[in-house]
Specification:
By secondary structure, the chain is an alpha+beta fold. It contains twelve helices and 23 strands. Among the domains are: 195 residues, no CATH class; 31 residues. It has a 23-stranded mixed sheet that branches.
Length: 601
């Protein structure tokens, strides 16, 4: 019977060339959807097993293929390492440093070309989306460089029997739950991340890209973004935060915003620790030409530059530290400390911009805290490295900094640290410009119980050659109108009390008011030779050396210091004698009064 709705020629044409093919495609799609899941499972399993050299296995519970949409959905996917294979490779020194475990409830593949996969053996996918995946990575240092393996084939060569190529336009992992376990130290270090997104673009494995070193894991770019990461150190004394982190492998760049290291409150910290208390707050950090793959595989940090922008670094000297004369504090020298970090580090240039540095110390005698600040610090550190090859090429770390001492005087300073010298040799030289001496009072009042009542620093210049044993060089200190007041602790009233006689004596007989005394005269300068006690740390020894040069410039040379000490001792002895005689007279007077009263009775 002829269908009534096919009366016209155009209707028959549409039915023949449009509806019939559509019905056939629909029926084929139903058939393919039904039988595709086991075929796809076998393909995926075979590819993962082959490309990982049997180390990893992949499984999923179900798969749906929508041919017309070009869409595949996989459910309950798990990628797990085979521990037996891993242990065998470990004995053969072929095991990787990182093991990965992945669990995904649903994986969506868009713009898939199944016909190309089945008939042409080319896996071509437009986009892969993994929502809320769980990624666990464990790190163990099995080797520090690429191991020599018998199988030199590339990933493409390993899969070429099953697939001619693999191409994925974009891979998105949204809201990743990430757990990282590091077994390289004495204790297992565990990091857990949330609010992390990861995307990869243009993953291509074929005969051309198999040796393309511009790609990481065969991807043109891998971007990792992390928001609002926070945690605490194992000691519980520090909390750390990162507001935002982004890593791009195409740019080889790591960007961090809002980096904070916040110590516990002062009382809690010093009750639990004998170490100095550090704080860090950096607005932004950028690591350029960062070799992520080298760091991921071997913990080798290599970059052309590290840039720190705007922030504060604070140090509070721990008042509970016990002095141990058996420990050589040469370990606090930067060229010694850098070798203690336990990492292969190689950064060509470290740049700092607008960083404030604060050092605080509590004085047990004054019961006060003094703070020294270096504000708006900017400059460069060149050749920051522990890498043996880099050190063999250049064993000097050079530093050039400009800062504002106590937020007033401009200080330009240069360091040169020898990274191979057995005595940790280094040099430092610089110039401090004009500043009001009263700006120093917030530091010198609590720490030295001395106050500058007037004075202007015209220039402080220094050039010192140093090592772990001796600091020597030249110091020149130019100033005008210097007057000081000397104080002592008044513990009963919790304040500092002025020592009037000592202040007057210092200003009249010890301290020279100007340097030079007259404009026409030559300014006083000093040659210093300071033997470092082994218990003296880096910054304290630097300051002590400068102080040894400043003293003669203000008139307090060795001879004057001895004469002043003798005169103060004589004054104190005379004062003691006067007080003793006064007490004796008072006692005799009291005795006479008692005898007189006794006679009356």
């Amino acid at each position: 019977m002829q269908l009534k709705f096919l009366k016209h020629g155009w209707q028959k044409t549409v039915f023949k060339f449009v509806l019939i093919p559509a019905i056939i495609i629909f029926l084929l799609a139903l058939i393919v959807n039904r039988y595709w899941s086991p075929i796809l499972a076998n393909k995926v399993h075979d590819v993962v097993l082959t490309s990982s050299d049997s180390l990893y296995k992949v499984d999923f519970s179900d798969a749906e293929l929508h041919v017309l949409e070009g869409k595949i959905t996989l459910y309950n996917i798990s990628l797990k390492p085979d521990t037996a294979v891993y242990n065998r490779k470990k004995k053969q020194h072929l095991a990787p440093n990182n093991l990965v475990e992945l669990h995904v409830k649903r994986l969506v593949l868009l713009h898939v070309h199944p016909i190309s996969l089945y008939f042409r053996h080319k896996l071509n996918i437009g986009r892969v989306i993994l929502n809320e995946p769980e990624v666990n990575i464990s790190y163990q240092l099995n080797h520090t460089k690429d191991t020599i393996v018998k199988d030199h084939r590339t990933a493409w060569q390993k899969i070429s029997k099953s697939l001619h190529s693999i191409h994925i336009g974009q891979i998105q992992l949204n809201d990743v739950k990430f757990k990282y376990q590091d077994y390289s130290g004495n204790k297992v270090a565990i990091s857990e991340l949330k609010e992390m997104n990861l995307s990869a673009t243009d993953l291509l494995i074929d005969s051309v890209t198999q040796t393309d070193r511009s790609r990481l894991l065969y991807c043109k770019d891998i971007v990792t973004e992390l928001n609002n990461y926070s945690g605490k150190t194992t000691s519980g004394l520090y909390a750390y935060k990162i507001k935002y982190l982004k890593l791009s492998t195409l740019k080889s760049q790591l960007n961090v915003e809002g980096l904070q290291l916040e110590p516990a409150k002062t009382g809690i910290f010093f009750n639990k620790s004998s170490h100095d208390r550090f704080g860090l707050n950096i607005d932004s950090l950028q690591l350029n030409h960062f070799d992520f793959l080298s760091y991921h595989k071997y913990r080798r940090l290599t970059a052309t530059s590290l840039v720190l922008n705007t922030g504060t670094i604070s140090v509070f000297n721990n008042p509970n530290k016990t002095k141990d004369s058996t420990i050589d504090k040469v370990i606090t020298f930067p060229n010694v400390m850098i070798h203690k970090i336990g990492m292969d580090l190689n950064i060509d240039t470290l740049r700092v911009h607008r960083i404030n540095v604060e050092y605080s110390e509590f004085n047990r005698k004054s019961k006060k805290t003094g703070t020294v600040t270096f504000n708006n610090t900017s400059g460069h550190f060149y050749n920051v490295t522990t890498n043996e090859v880099a050190i063999a090429h250049n064993n000097i770390t050079a530093v050039q900094l400009t800062t504002y001492f106590m937020n007033q005087g401009r200080l330009d300073v240069q360091f040169a640290f020898n990274l191979t010298d057995k005595d940790a040799a280094f040099t430092y030289k610089g110039t401090l410009g004009t500043m009001n001496m009263q700006a120093l009072n917030s530091a010198v009042m609590p720490l030295a119980m001395v106050k500058a009542s007037s004075g202007t620093i015209k220039q402080l210049s220094f050039d010192i050659q140093a090592n772990s044993k001796v600091f020597k060089g030249n110091v020149a200190f130019l100033y005008n109108d210097l007057k000081v007041n000397i104080f002592q602790a008044d513990t009963a009233n919790d304040r500092l009390k002025k020592r009037s006689f000592m202040s007057m004596f210092a200003n009249l007989f010890v301290i020279k008011r100007n340097n030079p005394d007259k404009d026409s005269e030559t300014a006083r300068s000093a040659t210093v030779h300071y033997l470092r006690p082994k218990e003296a740390p880096f910054f304290k020894t630097m300051w002590k050396t400068l102080l040894e040069g400043i003293k003669p410039c203000v008139g307090l040379d060795a001879q004057k210091q001895k004469a002043t000490k003798d005169r103060i001792e004589e004054h104190n002895k005379n004062k003691h004698d006067r007080l003793a005689k006064k007490a004796e007279r008072k006692k005799r007077k009291a005795d006479r009064k008692r005898k007189k009263e006794a006679k009356k009775q």
